[in-house]
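hey can u check if this looks right to u? its 814 residues, i copy pasted from the old doc so theres a chance i mangled smth
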Amino acid sequence: MSLFISRRRALTLVGTVLVFGCNEQQLQQGFAADQTPPSVTIQKPDGDTLQVAGGISFAVNAVDNLGLKDITVALTVGFDFQFDTTLASAVTDLTLSFGIPLPVGTTAGGTIVITATVADGNNNITTAVDSVFLENAQALTVRILDPTPGGVTAPGLSIPVNIQAIQETGIRRIGYTATGVVTTADSMDFALPDTALFTTTLAVPGNAAVGTFSIVGFAQDSSGRRVTSSPVSVTVQTVVTDTDPPFVTFTVADRVEVTDSIIVTATDASGISSLEWSATSASSGAAVGGATLPSSGTLTQVTGRFPLNFTFTTFPQLVEIRAFATDAAGNRGEARADTAVASAIFVDTITVVNGITKPLPAGGVVADAVFNPNQNEFYLTNVLLNRLEIFRVTDTSYVNGGIIIGSEPFGIALWPRDTLGNNADTVVVANSGGTNLSIVNVNPAARRETRRHRLPNILVQSVTTEIDPANNQIKIKVVTFDFSDRPQYLGVTCRPTAGATACAADSIYAVYSTTPTPGQSTPFEDRGTVRWENLTATTPQSHFFWEHAQVAPSPDADSLQILVDRGPTVPTDTVLSVAKGIMVNLEALAFDRVTYVRNSGNATHAFIGEGGDVSLARVIGYNGNRQLLRTRDTTVIVSQQIEGPSEVDFGITPGIRVSDFVANAATAVKSVAINFNGLTNIVRADSVYVLDENLRLAGLIPVGGSNSGMDLNFQHAFDPFVGGTAGTFGGVADSSLRMVFLAREDANIDVFDTFFFDRITTIPIRDPIIGPLRVALLPTGEQILIGVTARGVVTVRFPQIPNIFPDPPTGDGR
């Protein structure tokens, strides 16, 4: 491990200085005759063991009878750090406290040697050496998986030994020692994985005495530390005529997917010759699964993992599970609920649910996802690994390595070709760890990031007038607010030429929110913004969303001016001049720290939802095909004529506060969704709120909980007030597409009608969806649902769901 720490940035010093009274002449005379060396001690107020996350902390105290001159502190064993200082005055007692944070992502630890050297005015030198141990929050752990407590064996037979160790800094060695009637030891070296499993077999000598022996596992990490497990006792017994069946146990989850596994373990002093499990339908009693695993008969404890491999196509299914084993003497035993009662057979009834879950290939955290119908693939932004995960629907597998993109990728959207729902094999990703968007080619023939689109710095200026107290004259006051430009969530829209459906060559717009940073202007330290950026224009075009905050002229409002800064080599561009006379509620300009953005399937609309504190939460609609007006305006302020360009986007629907329609004042917006043509917008808070294009509340869906996962059918093209195609009540559109899918805390997904606001059906899955949820319809009519759970990405396949609610009667109801 090698870690280079910047002294200027990483060091925190708190000095306590005590100076005893004497003049300069006395000091010089004292130094010349001084033979007494200074004293130095290293203090560790946080103890000998420190966590990587907390960094390195310690203090150095130096004392001298006349005066200290030099203090040097160094860290060794992998850390390149040194501090030295020369004191300009006669300091006799000095304490320096060191706090050294480690770079983000540091995982390695170990022993850190601290050396402190002190010299006085006569160059008498004293050195102190001490150390601290740096460890991860994940402590080194080791446990024995096999044999299990109470295991039995016999002379001349064997028993399996499986020992697992975990430590983020890496496992160097795992082993065990056995003491008692069997005495032996074994170990194995590893190449520093964070999790390792040592698997071997312990052979019991043929002359072993009857009795017990204990196995203790041990593990050693990268720094040489060693820990041991709790002991496991094994009994050695002589087998004469074995008539007892094996002791059998099995483990299976209460709620399983068809590809999950069952673990069967059997123990018998004669040795195990086979393991077996069976499954029957709880309703019909028909056999639905099972398998047998033969064994050599020389192992007295055997554990087998069996894939369930159920073939169900409808869910849920109740299944009864049993497990069996046969020993080397031919005795067959079945798992029992009570080992003392032979007839107490253990039958476990489990629920088989829809979905196949695949863990992320290399771990990480998924922030957002999108489905590409061209390739039948889902793309997921992995924030921690700075890459795009590619999940193939056809075989529920990941493309190896994904695509490496920008820093901390967050929101993602498809690149549209037209307003008919067709898209290119390109996605746009918001890199929240930078100020750019990744444009990524996802076509299998050339999967790579093709460019990064730089985002500008946008300056918001409040222009007011005030009285100058120096001369009692009115003057103009301009206050500039600088927000973070790091993108968070995004949607993509396009503007076709008049009368056409194809996206114009220079009309691809990314509508995105920004994530706040502490360095923003007061009082907006924790507030983000919403903007759009033209991704294809020859001349850069950017727009800051201000229209939602516009108010009528008032002494309490601020005149607004917006400037775009694209760097030192490009002149600052005024996109909204104060000459336009726009007045806003300044507080309403910014958004909460998490603001969601989704675009419609036809790329004509976007929907923005403000998360966080409900007192701030709002929703805003955006229609990308409405007028974008650019003018040049002139006005007079305090006898000064001001002229400048202005831009107004009439596609921004004034925002409404979520608090206008939530029932619970403590709730927060957790996600948003928008349908294919932008006529239906969904907000998830304490309940689910269905809005039309103009953000009028159409109805409530009573699904709450902490989950955020939510999506509409991709082909959903209904107005929530009309229920059918635009202009009709009921219409001819397929009502089976008039659905919204909502994740629940109890590992179910509710499907609701967006016109009648009632539940159509519920889809059971194994684990609750805690991240994004997306739904797609394949050309075959099969629907695909993908969601992020704590254990990975779950894919759920199901046929098109019939809508149990009828089409509304003809007529618009007015």
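The chain has three helices and 62 strands.
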